[in-house]
Backbone:
């Protein structure tokens, strides 16, 4: 990620061709209107069956906080991150923007309640709100109230009305921490025109890896509109939160010599696999401990019941009582996964033993721990290659291999020290993505300026 970086360039549809974009949005919204009954049923199903809250109805309807009109030298920036993980990726970018544009007014939106909680607790923004529904009316109201000069979105949040109306209102649009999944590449084959149109909406895309850049080019994005900036989450992980880890260890009555396996961001089917691996681990290491952190907190009750059905005593983190030495701990609080990885001697990252595509493999590494993960790393393949080649990760295929990898690590203190040192070096090499993204943002706001 070193070497010369191209100047930020806008999408080929320039500001003088707003009529074409307006027509495209008109056609898109006609199709959206036809699909409205299905969308309404889906939203009701999410709320009633999956218990997915929609956040503030006022915000969803476009009645977001006002930040006032544009002022000289004080740009308004709308920063969007869908959930807690993306907020973690956006926070270093926000901090870099604050440093480079100290007078900027920054409003931050999320989609999930977890994302909103993390944003309010960790981000220094001037306003927080839930992303309005992606319709002309709701997004139009939001644009009118915020009047942003720059819209910054994380990863894959390509909402057509959101980005299209931002462009029509004169705002520049920047993607940070971008990645292109296998699913998007498949969509690019059967819905090529739609996908190409979506990627024409941002002015510039800062992506995590060369793999993502090559995929964007295959989807029709011109190379000058792409910057390989790296993963901004690394900037947030540069310093382990040792105080949070000590606090968690104290609350769990965990001693320094205990051997913890921490399974983070797990999905249905993985908790049972981890429990089976833990059974094998306890045969070799009777004093080993296990903490499981489901990816979605609404699954905590189901996960607790499933593990209890396997014969294990279960304690939730929020219970506030030290667990018995034989109990499996379920992490049911927000914002403590990073601290939990510091508690373990190895971390298993979920979404990899089932076909989800994987999550942030660098979190255990940043805590100085070995990272264990399954074969399904389609969404983080570059990260998987990075940890494997750096000697801090092990790819496993089943519970038996997970147990074997953990036991091997637990019984080799010298190897654990090597992994911690290699992990620190790896994180240090990957830092700087947020600064690079902020430089691009500054250039989009003012092509003559630099941070």
Residues:
């Amino acid at each position: 990620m070193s070497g010369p970086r191209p100047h930020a360039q806008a999408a080929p549809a320039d500001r003088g061709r707003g009529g074409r974009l307006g027509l495209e949005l008109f056609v898109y919204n006609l199709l959206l209107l036809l699909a409205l009954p299905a969308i309404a049923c889906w939203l009701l199903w999410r709320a009633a069956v999956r218990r997915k809250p929609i956040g503030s109805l006022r915000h969803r309807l476009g009645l977001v906080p006002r930040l006032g009109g544009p002022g000289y030298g004080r740009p308004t920036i709308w920063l969007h991150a869908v959930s807690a993980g993306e907020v973690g990726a956006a926070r270093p970018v926000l901090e870099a923007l604050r440093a480079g544009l100290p007078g900027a007014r920054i409003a931050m939106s999320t989609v999930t309640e977890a994302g909103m909680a993390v944003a309010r607790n960790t981000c220094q923004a001037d306003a927080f709100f839930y992303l309005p529904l992606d319709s002309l009316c709701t997004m139009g109201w939001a644009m009118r109230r915020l009047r942003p000069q720059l819209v910054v979105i994380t990863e894959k949040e390509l909402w057509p009305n959101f980005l299209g109306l931002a462009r029509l209102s004169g705002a520049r649009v920047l993607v940070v921490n971008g990645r292109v999944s296998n699913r998007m590449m498949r969509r690019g084959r059967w819905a090529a025109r739609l996908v190409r149109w979506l990627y024409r909406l941002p002015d510039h895309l800062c992506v995590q890896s060369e793999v993502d850049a090559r995929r964007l080019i295959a989807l029709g994005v011109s190379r000058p509109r792409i910057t390989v900036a790296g993963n901004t989450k690394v900037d947030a992980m540069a310093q382990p939160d040792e105080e949070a880890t000590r606090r968690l260890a104290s609350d769990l009555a965990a001693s320094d010599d205990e051997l913890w396996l921490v399974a983070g961001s797990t999905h249905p089917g993985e908790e049972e696999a981890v429990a089976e691996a833990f059974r094998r681990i306890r045969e070799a290491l009777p004093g080993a401990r296990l903490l499981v952190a489901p990816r979605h907190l609404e699954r905590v009750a189901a996960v607790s019941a499933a593990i209890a059905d396997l014969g294990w005593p279960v304690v939730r983190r929020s219970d506030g009582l030290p667990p018995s030495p034989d109990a499996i701990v379920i992490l049911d609080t927000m914002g403590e996964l990073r601290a939990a990885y510091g508690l373990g001697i190895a971390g298993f990252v979920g979404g990899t033993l089932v076909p989800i595509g994987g999550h942030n493999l660098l979190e255990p590494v940043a805590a100085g721990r070995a990272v264990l993960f399954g074969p399904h790393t389609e969404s983080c393949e570059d990260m998987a290659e990075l940890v494997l080649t750096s000697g801090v990760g092990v790819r496993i295929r089943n519970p038996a291999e997970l147990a074997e990898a953990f036991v091997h690590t637990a019984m080799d203190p010298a190897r654990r020290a090597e992994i911690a040192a290699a992990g620190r070096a790896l994180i240090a090499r990957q830092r700087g993505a947020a600064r690079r993204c902020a430089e691009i943002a500054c250039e989009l706001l003012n092509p003559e300026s630099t941070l």
